[in-house]
């Protein structure tokens, strides 16, 4: 788990490499208020508006990662022009190939099921069994003066991909 949480590369590329069918399901992209633990991290006052985007990344039809992105409304058009037209396109397809984008260090957390993001996951995946806590990571990306915060929450089905990777690594040794 630690290797996946700490990986600084594109989660999209990592998942595509381990599945035959990768897809993104857009849950929402809309103006909102940043969550309580987000506004200070992206340098905004508590009452500031943001654009948030929630997606679920699927590998071979199984939901493996919940992605949550937050951008200040003032920087969407100037600093992140591709963001408004992403739709079901993965964010990583743009972020990791733009030479103007800089990533800050990754932060890690275990989200209890009462965390707002865990509650969104439960609504998006009704009937999906969840562990008592979900592993998550987030980091800031900067492009010009714009700041984007991206959070990846690892879903239970990701374990199968990680186990398959561990088995293939053992087979090559």
What labels would you give this structure?
single chain, alpha+beta, Chorismate lyase, seven-stranded antiparallel beta sheet, 7 strands, globular
List the helices and strands and how they pair.
Elements: H1 2-6, H2 11-17, E1 22-33, E2 49-59, E3 62-72, H3 76-79, H4 92-95, E4 101-103, E5 107-112, H5 116-124, E6 133-143, E7 146-154, H6 158-171
Antiparallel strand pairs: 1-2, 2-3, 3-7, 4-6, 5-6, 6-7
Characterize the structure shown:
- The chain is an alpha+beta fold and 173 residues long.
- The chain has one domain (2-171): Chorismate lyase-like (Chorismate lyase).
- The chain contains 6 helices and 7 strands.
- It has helices at 2-6, 11-17, 76-79, 92-95, 116-124, 158-171, and strands at 22-33, 49-59, 62-72, 101-103, 107-112, 133-143, 146-154.
- Strands 1, 2, 3, 4, 5, 6 and 7 form a 7-stranded antiparallel β-sheet that branches.
- β6 and β7 form a beta hairpin.
- The longest helix is centred in the last third of the chain and has 14 residues, at 158-171.
- The relative contact order is 0.20.
- Mean pLDDT is 87; it is low at 166-173.
């Amino acid at each position: 788990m630690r290797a996946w949480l700490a990986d600084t590369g594109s989660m999209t590329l990592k998942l595509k490499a381990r599945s035959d069918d990768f897809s993104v399901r857009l849950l929402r992209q809309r103006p909102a208020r940043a969550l309580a633990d987000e506004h200070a991290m992206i340098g905004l006052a508590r009452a500031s508006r943001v654009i948030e985007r929630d997606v679920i990344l699927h590998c071979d039809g199984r939901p493996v990662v919940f992605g949550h992105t937050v951008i200040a409304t003032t920087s969407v058009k100037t600093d992140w022009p591709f963001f408004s037209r992403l739709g079901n396109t993965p964010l990583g397809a743009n972020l990791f190939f733009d030479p103007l984008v800089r990533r800050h260090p990754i932060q890690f957390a275990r989200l209890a099921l009462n965390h707002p993001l865990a509650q969104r996951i439960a609504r998006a995946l009704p009937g999906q069994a969840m562990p008592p806590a979900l592993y998550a990571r987030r980091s800031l990306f900067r492009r010009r003066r714009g700041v984007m915060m991206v959070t990846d929450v690892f879903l239970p089905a990701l374990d199968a991909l990680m186990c398959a990777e561990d088995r293939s690594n053992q087979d090559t040794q």
